[in-house]
Amino acid sequence: MTDSSSMQATIQEIITTLKNKPGALLPILHGVQNALGYVPAESVPTIAKALNLSRAEVHGVISFYHYFRDNKPGKHTIHLCRAESCQSMGGKQLENHVKTRLGIDFHETTADGKFTLEPVYCLGNCACSPAMQIDEEIYGRVTANSFDSAINETEELA
Amino acid sequence: MSITIYVPCDSSAISLGADRVAVAITKEAEKRSIDIQLIRNGSRGMFWLEPLVEVVTDEGRLAYGPVQVSDVVSLFDANFIKGGSHPLFLGLTEELEYLKKQQRLTFARIGKTDPVSLEDYVKNDGYRGLRNALNLPQTDIVKAVTDSGLRGRGGAAFPTGIKWNTVLNTPSEQKYIICNADEGDSGTFSDRMVMEGDPFVLIEGMTIAGLAVDATQGYIYLRVEYPHAHKALDTAIEKAYEAGYLGNDILGSGKVFHLEVRLGAGAYICGEETSLMESLEGKRGLVRFKPPLPAISGLFGKPTVVNNVISLASVPIILDKGGDYYRDFGMGRSRGTLPLQLAGNIKHTGLVELAFGLTLRELLYDFGGGSASGRPIKAVQVGGPLGAYLPESQFDTPLDYEAFAAIWAVLGHGGVVAFDDTVDMAEMARYSMEFCAIESCGKCTPCRIGSTRGAEVMDEIIKGQELDKNIPLLRDLCNTLLNGSLCALGGMTPYPVLSALNHFPEDFGIDDKANAA
Predict the structure, then answer these.
(1) Above pLDDT 70, what percent of chain B?
(2) How far apart, in whole angstroms, are the C-alpha atoms of residue B335 and residue B28?
(3) Could A126 and B186 be called an inter-chain contact, meaning their C-beta atoms sit closer than 8 Å?
(4) Which of A85, A118, A137, A157 to mutate to test the interface with B (most CBs of B within 10 A)?
(5) Which residues in chain A are contacts of B264 at CB distance < 8 A?
(6) Confidence band, pLDDT 50/70/90 cuts, at residue B73
(7) Are B516 and B505 in contact (CB under 8 A)?
(8) Peptide bond into B292 cis (omega under 30)
(9) Is residue A48 assigned to a domain?
(10) Which domains are seen in chain B, by residue range?
(11) Full residue range of the structural domain in which residue A45 is found
(12) How far are the Cα atoms of B106, B346, B381, B493 from residue B434, in angstroms, in the given order?
C-alpha cells in the first residue's frame, strides 16, 4: 500500500468508528491528529463527505482551533506556556532561551525535524511556574538549564 | 506486613518528578526486599513540598518532601517507612499548618485517596449524596442546591439552583448536563486537581444533576492540555459504569445517566458556555447570542445545564449533608467554600479551600508566605486573564464576590497570581490585549478589532509616543470593548488593562495618578 492510501485507510477507519456520535467532527479531528500527528488537507473531503458537511465547514473548524494543525509537526512538540503566572516567574526570559537554543520561533520546527515549538496559554501548572509540556510530559519550575537537560533527554529517547 | 506509601499522581507533582520518585521507591524497596504497597494519590496542594511522599504508620500518615530521586536511598537508610528522622521529614500530614487551617469540603478526599479507586471513594463518604438524591423528588434535589447558596464557581457566580430549576421546568424529550472543564484561566488549577485527584466526585455531582433535571446524557468538555485528567476521568467513568453508578439503571433505580468526556482543542473562548456548546456540536467555537439561555435552548437546541467542575463537585456534599451545612460557611451572598489557587511568584503556592471572607493579604502572606523571589509583591491578578490587577492598597479586600465587584475586580474562579516589583504593568496590559486578539472568536467587532488595535496602542504607549493622545484612546477603546462585546472575553479584557493603568500609571510613563484618570 502506498503512504497516501494507508493514510486514507486510517482516516476512513477513524471516521467509521466515530461518525455516529452527536457532534462527531471534533472527536474525528482528534482521532486523525492522534494517529497522524496532524490533520492533512487530503482528509478534509473525506471527513466532509462522511458528515454531510461542506469542505469549507471542515476547514473552518480545523483552522479555528489552535491545537489542530494542517502540517506535519516535528518528532516532538514543545508547548511553552506564555500566560501570566509563568510570566511572573521569568517565563519571558525562558521563552527567549528556548527560541535561541532551538533556533526557531513559535509555530516553527527545527531544521532537523526534531522539535516543533508552540505557545500554550496555561497548562494548569501555575503553582510550579514556568511550565511546559514536551509531547504529553509536563515540566514545572523550568529553568534554562532544566530545559536543556529535558531536551537532551528527549533526544536520547528518540 | 506491607507498608503503604503514597506518591501523588497529580500533574504538578509529576512536573516536579513524582513519577520518577515513585519508580525509584519501588526499585529501592525491591532491592532491600521490603514489602511495600505504593499508591498514587492526588495532591494535597502544597506544591513547594511536592513531590510529597507519605508513609502510613501507627501514628497516622507521615509526610516527607520535597523528595527527589536522589533522596530515595537516604530515606530508606533513615528507615522512613517507620517514620525515621530525615532532613525532609515534615511530620503528620494532617497537622501541617497550611492544611490544618483550611476548610476542605469539595477537596475533602483529595490527596488522601487513590483517585481511581471506587472502593476508596465509597469508603470515604463517596456516593452518599447520590443515594440520598435517588430517594428524593426532583424539586427537593434542586431545593437543596438552591438552599446551599452555591454559585457558579467557573467565575460568573450565577446561582446553580436557579439554573437547575429552569432546566427542570423546561419540558423536553432530551436534556443535557455539561461540565465545563475548559479551565483556561492562568493561575487556576482547582478543576484539574479535582479531575485528577477525585474524578468520582465530579461524576457523582453530574449524575445528581442529571437526576434533578431529567437529563440522561452528560458531557465533560475537557481541555486538551490536561492529558492526565483525561486518563483519570476515563478510568473512573468506566469503573462507575461497571459498578452501576452510571448507565441505564443507576443502582437499580431505573434512572438513566450516561457520561462521556469530549476534548477541546486549545481555544480559550470555548470556556464561554455558548461557544463550548458550539464546539461540542462540532463547529467553530463562536459565541452565541443570549437569549435563548442554554437552560432553555442549549446543546443541540435542548435544555442544558452548564456548570463548572468545582460547582458540580460541590453537589455531592450538599446532597449528603444538606444545603444548610454548606450554606453555613461563607459571608454575605457568597456561601460555602471556595478552593483558592495561589500561583505565580509566591513562596508557598498551592490549593487553599476556605469559606469566603479571608482577605487577599492573609492568603498571600499567611498561606503564601510572600513572594518566591523575596522581593515585594507589586500586583496580584485575581480571577484569571480577564481579572483586574490589584495593588498593595487593595490587599485587605475580603475574598467575596460582592467585595471584589465593589472595587471593580473579579474573584472569578479563585485563581490568584502574584507578581513582584520587577513586573512592568504596561507590558502586562499589552499582553492582555494580545491574548484577547489571539483568542477572540471573531464574532463581534469590538473584541475582534479592538483587541488588535489595543495591542498597537499599547506598543506606542510603551515606546512613550504621544501619551496625551494614546492614553485617552486606550480608555476609549476599553470603553467600547466593555460595553459593546458579546461575551466576557472582549467585555472583560479592559479589567486587567484599565486596572494596570489606574493603579500603576508610572509604568505607562505617566507621573501622577491624577493624569492617569
Answers:
(1) 99
(2) 48
(3) yes
(4) A85
(5) 26, 65, 67
(6) very high
(7) yes
(8) yes
(9) yes
(10) 3-96 (3.40.30.10), 118-327 (3.40.50.11540), 330-420 (3.10.20.600), 425-516 (1.20.1440.230)
(11) 3-64
(12) 35, 25, 17, 10
The verdict on a CB contact (< 8 Å) between A83 and B263 is no
Neighboring chain A residues of B192 at a CB cutoff of 8 Å = 124
- How far is CA B191 from each of CA B8, B221, B325, rounded to the nearest angstrom? 16, 12, 23
With beta carbons under 8 A apart, name residues in chain A contacting B428. Answer: 84, 87
Q: Which three cell numbers stand for residue B218?
A: 452528560
The ipTM (two decimal places) reads 0.97
**How many residues are there in chain B?**
517
Closest partner CB to B184 (pick from A121, A128, A131)? A121
Q: Do B343 and A65 touch (CB under 8 A)?
A: no
**pLDDT tens digits, one per residue of B10-29:** 999 999 999 999 999 999 99
Per-residue pLDDT band at B511 (split at 50, 70, 90) = confident
Residue of A84, A95, A143 best to disrupt the B interface, most CBs of B under 10 A: A84
Structure confidence at residue B512 (pLDDT) = 62
Q: State the Cα–Cα distance between residues B396 and B413, nearest whole angstrom.
A: 19
Q: What is the CATH number of the domain that holds A130?
A: 3.40.30.10
Contact A128 B15 (CB under 8 A): yes
Backbone angles phi, psi at B149, to 5 degrees: 80, 10
Residue among A84, A124, A139 whose CB faces B226 most closely? A124
User: Do the chains contact at B282 and A26, CB–CB below 8 Å?
Assistant: yes
pTM: 0.97
Q: How far apart are CA B399 and CA B416, in angstroms?
A: 11
Length of chain A: 158
Q: List the single residue in A with minimal CA-CA distance to B422.
A: A88
Q: Which of A41, A64, A87 is the last residue of a domain?
A: A64
